[in-house]
Specification:
With 223 residues, the protein is of the alpha+beta class. The chain folds into two domains: 47 residues, no CATH class; 167 residues, CBS-domain (Roll), CATH 3.10.580. It contains seven helices and eight strands. Strand 6, helix 6 and strand 7 form a beta-alpha-beta unit. Helix 2 packs across helix 6. Keywords: CBS domain, Repeat.
Length: 223
């Protein structure tokens, strides 16, 4: 069965666009203008969650107090995936890997956990790097997988092959603190290229959780 990619029109709401991206699990939704008689269509823009979030942040830039939830620390709201505390159950435990883990183990975990990225941590669970599906794409573009044995190459070695390609402003890992407000986190994620934030402990950089763009929209839209 052939499935059409989702599209949106210029008069659709931001909520409509965000919901189409989330439900279709796509990165981009084209904004299309069609003539009344349907004789021609015009591509106006390409909408992404980061662009939608940027519009929301711009709207609340000087009036975030009008929506109290924006001033709440992220640790106080059901947002993202967190490392469970001792004795606490977690429906979706956060996946973590050591840098010496094999590339094959990382690929398997990405699929099994159904996540787009995995924080790479040291023996103290302090953040070192992050391995994402985009890193797989980078290796595939260079056909590097043809020369790689997945169970012999470590995550550290694999990341060195795509160190520069998937960095944002010179950083691969975008971080935040559990005490940061929802508004601050939204502003960080609104930057093009920042698809997720790793929540770390101040000072030690011990990983406490992770928040993605889709997590924020699922929370805001109640889906």
């Amino acid at each position: 069965m052939f499935l059409m990619n989702p599209i949106a029109g210029p008069y659709d709401t931001l909520m409509d666009v965000a919901l189409r991206i989330l439900k279709s699990k796509v990165a981009v939704v084209p904004i299309i203008h069609s003539s009344q008689d349907g004789s021609f269509t015009q591509l106006l823009n390409l909408a992404t969650l980061s662009e939608v979030l940027k519009c929301i942040c711009r709207h609340f830039k000087h009036s975030s107090s009008s929506l109290p939830i924006l001033q709440q620390p992220i640790c106080s709201i059901p947002l993202g995936t967190w490392v469970p505390k001792l004795g606490e159950s977690n429906g979706q435990p956060l996946a973590l890997l050591r840098p010496n883990a094999s590339l094959g183990a990382a690929l398997s975990l990405l699929i099994q956990a159904d996540v787009s990225s995995i924080p790479i941590v040291d023996e103290n669970d302090s953040l070192l790097d992050i391995y994402s599906r985009s890193d797989i794409t980078t290796l595939a573009k260079d056909r590097a997988y043809a020369q790689i044995r997945l169970d012999e190459m470590s995550i550290h070695q694999a990341l060195q092959l795509c160190q520069d390609a998937n960095s944002f402003n010179g950083q691969r890992c975008q971080m935040c603190l559990r005490s940061d407000t929802l508004h601050k986190v939204m502003e960080q994620l609104a930057n093009a290229g920042a698809r997720r934030l790793v929540i770390v402990e101040a000072g030690s950089k011990r990983v406490e959780g992770i928040i993605s763009l889709s997590d924020v929209f699922k929370f805001l839209l109640g889906v």
